[in-house]
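Sorry to interrupt, but I need a hand with the structure work. I would like you to pick a protein and set down its sequence and fold. Please put the record directly below this note.
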Amino acid sequence: QVQLVESGGGSVQAGGSQKLSCQVSGSTARRLCMGWYRQIPGKEREAVARIDINDRPQYAGSLEGRVTIFRDNAKNTLNLEINNLKAEDTGMYYCAAAEAGWAGQCPDGSDYAYWGQGTQVTVS
């Protein structure tokens, strides 16, 4: 059973940066389709960034240029760096994972099987 535990959230001033980490257990991060999602108050959960099993990233249009998603294979983690944080980035950030399909394809949208509990990012 894959388990995901996020860390790195907290309070940060606008214009600052934050690094979020997702510790993977029960599997190997580099073999999973993975992603970061966020839930902003009053809005639906949205994708922030995703990465496939070939380490190809995909970023949400509204955040592209400010975020970087990457794995640390030695630590078996998925990470997200967010730069130039804005007040509207405040929300709960979730790590998600899924096994790739038989051809290596990753799920569409937010159809991921495994989710962490989330880590709160507050920008003021």
Residues 9 and 119 are 5 Å apart (CA to CA).
